[in-house]
Design brief:
The structure holds two protein chains of two kinds.
Chain A: E1 8-19, E2 22-33, E3 37-41, H1 48-55, E4 63-68, E5 71-72, H2 79-88, E6 89-92, H3 104-116, H4 120-133, H5 149-161, E7 167-171, H6 179-194, E8 198-202, H7 206-212, E9 215-220, E10 223-228, H8 230-235, H9 240-260
Parallel strand pairs in A: 3-8, 3-9, 6-7, 7-8
Antiparallel strand pairs in A: 1-2, 1-4, 4-5, 9-10
Helix pairs in contact in A: 3-4, 3-5, 4-5, 5-6
Chain B: H1 2-16, H2 28-62, H3 67-82, H4 85-103, H5 114-140, H6 143-152, H7 156-186, H8 198-209, H9 212-241
The chains are: A alpha/beta, B mainly alpha.
The complex binds adenosine-5'-triphosphate (ATP) and magnesium ion.
Magnesium ion (MG) binds next to helix 1 of chain A.
Chain lengths: 261, 248
């Protein structure tokens, strides 16, 4: 497709997906290069979460190709193959979804020890290193219920990273947070992206998306309406629908920032 | 020797307030009665883990999403839940046991004892109740938590083991403890098929001695004590498993 094509780690081609009668994805094309950060923006219900779930084989499209690091995800038939893929692709959700009965450390250690067979000491060492990265070392022995939303989300990011994924999917990871804690989570993601972690972010944080993304994709109604550099999408969008959406949201953000003070 | 003295002392003291425990000083009846306590305790100690293991197994089947696993277990749960345990026990002993006897060529070859049938029937009956409680607990685990576990790369069994069961067990613990208290009381159905647990043994004694009230007092105290312990241990486990900042 383009000169970077060989570098692609994720590629979706003409992906169609329906839930029963509802057509949710109507021909999605998306390429993500290794080390890039791609943001997916668009109105609610446009299929953003579904795109991420497809990449991680949590849902299967009816047609189209999905390639992740050499694996044809759409052709996986066995659950064991899908599991093998999920080990390589981290995903972080809006609602953190930590395991409430495990301490922060155990949340991070569970998957490497039980899925990858890493020994406990090794896994704990990595977990503590990751907690340092997300600035939560002192919370290692706390339970999720004792943490703020922002702290829980940072643990969720550490938990995903503990599997040493090739890429990480972020699904509106700051949407459930109060404005004051959004920043601490964005900090962590910004660091990750700077370290070269391939990331796909569904986000409503337009300024953040503009700052860290290599590419921004605008989806609506199950289609990619526009894509380009952050500059292109946020500063001078050609597409009137994108222009309307972006200006509407920046107003919203400005209002919220005002409240935060 | 000391034992004998204590028994004599007890018999004479209770005699003064008009309670007749004289059989305790005899060899045979005292032995029957003591064995009754032991048998009941043995039943309880055996039945608790049996009911829990099968309860967990049934719950796993019920929530497996596979019809060939869930449908038979669902049918069994409904039948055992909705019919009297006494009838189940009689059916098992009089029908199933006879069937087994015929299969192996006569009752003398049948290894299954009345004791076995009490454990099987009461154990599976309570297991069905546990299973319902655990199933409800598993279904109460948020879909998003399960999806997160799937997204990380856990398989179905690992999700059950590391996420769903630990959470479901905490949520269903009060119901499970209730079931166990019922289990302790249900051991008395063994009476109907001549398993010499405490009520059966007591009937043997009081038909000879005419001391129903005396034996009743002890039986009631005995069951109250066991269930007090069950409830206490349940509470202790509940506290032990309580997760800070989590409303379970
Ligand atoms: N499991 C499902 N079954 C049926 N419909 C679903 C399912 N998951 C999503 N949908 C529908 O698919 C559409 C796209 O959902 P999706 O969650 O991908 O949107 P989104 O862009 O992430 O929206 P939001 O910004 O609100 O998170 C919605 O209309 C939703 O109702
Ligand atoms: Mg979404």
């Amino acid at each position: 497709m383009n000169t970077f094509a060989n570098n692609a780690i994720v590629r979706l081609e003409d992906v169609h997906l329906s839930f029963g009668q509802t057509e949710v994805l109507k021909g999605i094309d998306l390429t993500v290069n290794k080390g890039d950060a791609v943001s997916i923006i668009g109105p609610s219900g446009s299929g953003k979460s579904t795109i991420l779930r497809c990449i991680n084989a949590l849902v299967a499209p009816q047609s189209g190709r999905i390639t992740v690091g050499g694996t044809r995800v759409d052709q996986l038939t066995k659950e064991s193959e899908r599991i093998a893929l999920r080990k390589r692709v981290g995903i972080v959700f809006q609602q953190y979804n930590l395991f409430p009965h495990l301490t922060v450390l155990d949340n991070i250690v569970l998957a490497p020890t039980r899925i990858l067979g890493v020994d406990r000491r090794e896994a704990e060492k990595l977990a503590r290193h990751l907690l340092e990265k997300v600035r939560l070392v002192e919370k290692a022995n706390a339970y999720p219920g004792q943490l703020s939303g922002g702290q829980q989300q940072r643990v969720a990011i550490a938990r995903a990273l503990a599997m040493k994924p090739e890429l990480v999917l972020f699904d509106e990871v700051t949407s459930a947070l109060d404005p004051e804690t959004v920043g601490e989570v964005l900090w962590v993601i910004r660091d990750l992206v700077r370290d070269g972690m391939t990331s796909i972010l569904v986000t409503h944080e337009m300024r953040f998306a503009e700052e860290i993304s290599d590419t921004v994709v605008f989806t609506e109604n199950g289609r990619v309406v526009d894509r380009g550099s952050p500059e292109q999408i946020f500063r001078n969008p050609d597409n009137p629908r994108v222009r309307q959406f972006v200006s509407g949201l920046s107003g919203h953000n400005a209002m919220r920032d005002g409240e935060g003070i | 020797m000391q034992d004998m003295n204590l028994t004599d002392l007890f018999v004479s003291l209770t005699d003064k307030v008009g309670l007749n425990y004289q059989f305790l000083a005899t060899g045979y009846e005292a032995q029957i009665w003591r064995d009754g306590f032991v048998t009941t305790l043995y039943l309880v100690v055996l039945l608790i883990p049996v009911s829990l293991i099968f309860g967990l197994l049934f719950a796993a089947c019920l929530t497996s999403g596979r019809l060939w696993l869930s449908a038979p277990v669902r049918a069994f749960v409904e039948i055992t839940r909705n019919t009297p345990t006494l009838v189940q026990l009689m059916f098992s002993f009089l029908v199933l046991n006879t069937f087994v006897s015929n299969l192996v060529g006569g009752a003398q070859n049948n290894p299954l004892t009345p004791f076995f049938w009490v454990v099987a029937v009461v154990g599976l009956h309570i297991a069905a109740l546990h299973a319902e409680a655990i199933r409800a607990g598993i279904e109460a685990v948020p879909a998003s938590t399960v999806e997160a576990a799937r997204g990380i790369g856990f398989n179905q069994l690992q999700i059950l083991r590391y996420v769903e069961v630990p959470l479901a067990f905490r949520a269903s613990l009060p119901a499970i403890v209730n079931n166990l208290i019922n289990l302790v009381k249900l051991t008395t159905v063994g009476n109907a098929i001549a398993v010499s647990e405490i009520t059966y043994a007591s009937i043997m004694v009081w038909t000879q001695r005419d001391n129903v009230v005396e034996l009743m007092i002890v039986i009631l105290a005995f069951f109250s004590l066991i269930n007090l312990i069950v409830a206490r241990v349940g509470l202790w486990v509940e506290r032990k498993l309580a997760v800070p900042g989590y409303g379970l």
